[in-house]
Structures are given as C-alpha cells and as structure tokens.
Design a protein that fits this description.
The chain is built from two helices and six strands, in the order βββαβαββ. The protein is of the alpha+beta class. The protein has a single domain, classed as 60s Ribosomal Protein L30, Chain: A. α1 crosses α2. 28% of the residues are buried. It comes from Kribbella jejuensis. Belongs to the RutC family.
Length: 131
C-alpha cells in the first residue's frame, strides 16, 4: 500500500491537511459517519468538547476493528452543527491534538451544517482508510 499526500503549487497553504491524497491499496475501509454516541446509545455529555471526544473514541474503535490506524486514513469529512467558526476551529484543534491526529493530515474537509441526525448531536466525522 502506498499513500502519497501533497499540496500542489498554485493552491493555498493549509493548516495541516493536504489538498491531494493519492492511494494505491488492496483494501479501502469506509467508516460510517462516527457520531458522539456512547456504547449505551446515549449522546455523550459535555457539549461540543465532550461529543468530539466521544467521536474520537468511536473512530479509534472502528479503525482498530478494521485493522487500520489513523495514519492509514486517506479522507476525512468533519461536520459541526454550528455556523460559528470558533466551534469549527475548536473541533479541528481538538481532533488534531488527539490520538487520531494523523488522520487529519490527509485530504480533509471541515463543514458547518444546520443539523445532524440525532437530537442534540453537534459533531460527526466521516473517515476512509486504505490498507
């Protein structure tokens, strides 16, 4: 498996992610959007920070179950139910300071959205890995 990440000349500088991720792999792993739900099915407490921490835990669990690690992630999409840029930045900072930080050096998108699937849900992250 080969993963090449680059920022081509002529595109803007990024805050840590790469514009282009090129992958040659035998297996791709697509995670469902990871929500801030605890194993009990209850929404994680602690507002945006607590929910983001639960999503990080869920991503680690899902990646491990597939035999993947954060450095094998080739695409992420982060959804934050907020129009406040500081909320989006807080999630970006939290994931980049977490055990899954390597997953966000690849092709990544960060979006503020009107709402997510579960009542009270503030964050969700979609992840693709290559093995």
């Amino acid at each position: 498996m080969t993963i090449e990440r680059s920022n081509p000349e002529g595109l803007h500088a990024t805050p840590g992610y790469h514009h282009v991720t090129r992958v040659q792999a035998d297996t791709l792993v697509y995670l469902a959007g990871q929500c801030p739900l605890q194993p009990s099915g209850e929404l994680a407490p602690g507002g945006l920070e607590g929910q983001t921490a639960q999503v990080i835990t869920n991503i680690l669990t899902a990646l491990e179950s597939a035999g993947a690690t954060p450095d094998q992630v080739v695409r992420t999409v982060i959804y934050v139910a907020s129009s406040d840029r500081s909320d989006l930045s807080a999630v970006w900072d939290q994931v980049n300071a977490s055990p899954i930080a390597a997953a966000f050096t690849t092709a990544s998108t960060l979006l503020g959205v009107a709402q997510l699937g579960f009542p009270g849900q503030l964050v969700e992250i979609d992840v693709t890995a290559a093995l």
